[in-house]
Amino acid sequence: MVWKRSPVGGVLFVALACLSYLFGTMYIVTPWFPLMLVRPTWYRWVVDKLIAWYWIFLVALLELVYGVKVRITGDSIKPGERTLLIMNHRTRLDWMFLWMYLIRRGQLSKEKIVLKNELRKIPGAGWGLETGCFLFITRRWEEDEKIMKKILDYLASIGHKTQLLLFPEGTDLTEYTRQRSDAYAEKYNLPKYDYVLHPRTKGFVYIAEKLIKEQHLDAIHDVTVGYPDGKAQKEADLLAGRFPEEVHFHVRRHPLNTLPTTPGQLEQWCTTLWAQKELQLKEFYQKKAFPDTNVLEGGKPGDPLRELKMRVVLWLSILFFVTVILVVPYMMVTSTSFCISAAIICAFYIAQRAVFGGAEHFQVDLYNTFHKK
Description:
Elements: H1 7-29, H2 35-38, H3 40-65, E1 69-74, E2 83-87, H4 94-105, E3 111-116, H5 125-131, E4 135-137, H6 141-157, E5 163-166, H7 175-187, H8 201-213, E6 219-226, H9 235-239, E7 246-255, H10 263-287, H11 304-334, H12 336-356, H13 359-370
Parallel strand pairs: 1-7, 2-5, 2-6, 3-4, 3-5
Antiparallel strand pairs: 6-7
Helix pairs in contact: 1-3, 1-5, 1-11, 3-4, 3-11, 5-13, 6-8, 8-10, 11-12, 12-13
C-alpha cells in the first residue's frame, strides 16, 4: 500500500517503535529489577530475552508490514558463540537492520552495541537501551576506556555469551564524513574511499585485545551491509516513510585462532579488512548483490518450516506489542494507581541516571557491590 512509504506510514512506524519501547521498558522490563539483587545472571538472561522480543517486533514491522526484504550471504554465528561484530556504517540505522540478520543467523538476545552517548537521551528508548546494558561512548578516550572496561568486565563476570556490535568508522557515511575521511587519507598518505570511511582503530584494538586476553572471545564476524535500492540514512527518513526496499548482508567469520594478538597487528588487520570492504562494496553496487555464497533469504535454504516458525513469531510480536500500546494508555486513563506507578517508574529512571549515570551503570554498580568477588 502506498501509505506505508509515505509520511503517514513513517510516523506510524516511529510512533509504534517509541511507544512499544517506552511501555515495554516501564511495565515489562522494570519489574524484573529486584532479580538483579539475588540472581544477576538470571536477571541478565530474562531482561535480554525481553528486550530481544521488542527488537523482533521492529523486525516484524519492517518485513511484514513495510515490506523490507533481507538477503544474507556468508557465515552464521554459532550457538553460544562470543563474538565481536565489526560492520561498515552506511547509515545511522544499520544497527536496526542488522537484527534481520541476527534473528536468522545469530542470537538476538545476546547482542550488545557500542553506541553514541546521545542515544541514551531518546525518550523511552534511551531507558531501554540503558537497561539492555549497552556501551555508550562519549568520544573522550579516557572516559570511554573506563566505560568499556566496566561493562565488558561485568558481562564477562556473569558469563554472558556476548555478541558485541562495533562500528569502527565511528559514524555513518555522508558527504561530510567522506570529506573528513579523505582529509585523513591525504594527511597519512592513504587511499581515498568511496564506499566506506577509514576506520578509527583505537576502540576496536582495545576491545579485541581485551576480549582475547581475558578469553572471552571465540571469533570476530566481519559484516558488510549494502542497500541496493534506496536507504534510510537517518531517523528523519523513517518519519518520511523512506524505507529501503532491500538490505543485504555479507558476513565473514574469523575464528579466534586466526586473529592477530598484538595491538599493532590488530590495527593493521582491521585496516586491511576495510580496504577489502571498499572493493567488495564497489562490486556490490555494480551488481546489486553480494556473491552467492551460502545464501539465506528469509530462512534457511530448503527449510520452509523454519521460515514458517519465524513468521509466526513475528506476527505474535506484532499482536503482543500492539496490545501493550493500546492497553497501557487505557489503564492510565482509567486507573489512578496505574498512573501513580507510571510516575514512580519515570522518577526512578530519572533519579538513577542522575545518580549513577544510566541504568547500565546502576546494574553494574549493584552487581559489583553485592556479588562480584
